[in-house]
## 1
Amino acid sequence: MMPEKQSKEENEVEALKEVGDIENHPSYRFIPKGYHEWRQEGGYIICRSCELEHAVWIGMDKILVGLNKDGKPILKNRDDYFKKQL
Ligand SMILES: [Zn+2]
């Protein structure tokens, strides 16, 4: 599956897409407010700090590098991120 190409810089929560197949993953719910301890697992970032675990699909070309002061996930393009490491 190819991720959608999006040219604009995406390092804020606006870049996140709500998980589409809620019916297949009833425990996944996008909760935009409050503080979440996001952990990346594959193409998802998953929060287990909330009472109800929830996850957001970010795509395989994104990497979670941390949280900003508002507790929102900071996402980088995986390619850009690893280029800077070299
Ligand atoms: Zn949460």
## 2
Amino acid sequence: MRNKTIAIIGTGNVGRALGSRLAHLDHKVLYGTRNPTSRKMLDLLQQSGGNAVALEISEAVKKADVVVLAVPWTKAQAIVQSVPDWKGKILVDCTNALNEDLSALTVAPTTSAAEEIAKWAKGAAVVKAFNSVGSRVMANPQFGTDNAVLFICGNELEAKTIIKTMGEGLGFDVTDAGDLISARYLEQMAMFWIHLALRQKMGSDFAFKLLKR
Ligand SMILES: NC(=O)c1ccc[n+]([C@@H]2O[C@H](COP(=O)([O-])OP(=O)(O)OC[C@H]3O[C@@H](n4cnc5c(N)ncnc54)[C@H](OP(=O)(O)O)[C@@H]3O)[C@@H](O)[C@H]2O)c1
């Protein structure tokens, strides 16, 4: 997916890991951030090399083909709805609608964060991705000779093909889990990942692998 311009909304754990790697893979990265001139932002730009710039959120979205939404779930609605026009954009939803102690999803089981975001971002092709891997794994999906699996889902095939190529470029084995409604499963999978990381004390440097024959 050369020649795509990718906006990364949110420069926390996920935004930093994906943005800096995508910039080093020669994508044009537009960080959409609350404060484009903060010290933190300038450090991230330096870490990202020459292919990245920092902009206000709506400006980054306007100039991008692909928008990676990497913000806290509780802020997602306001941020998505602050963008005047989502038509023609691919919106990659990384969020998980976590409750305060990270023990449950607040929107399951009859909808998902991705389906709610699709209602707010009218005209965007929403692809759920990067929600059930940790940010350390986004920074490096390789485990010896194995690659972590990246599950994606969405209703538009062309958008999923673009995100599949992006995920493979980052080093993941990408599996299409179906229509956007499958986000209900991918978000529960993230819950299980969080359970293993926090309650089973596995840390954050592990990932799921899909075996097939
Ligand atoms: N951490 C993980 O390993 C992981 C893995 C999979 C999915 N996720 C999901 O991905 C999303 C981002 O996770 P994260 O760990 O990157 O979160 P984080 O470290 O808390 O960063 C979120 C970023 O969102 C931006 N933001 C915009 N408006 C905000 C507001 N009002 N309050 C706070 N932040 C605001 C901030 O960037 P600016 O300061 O640049 O505006 C902030 O750095 C979450 O929904 C999370 O559930 C996380």
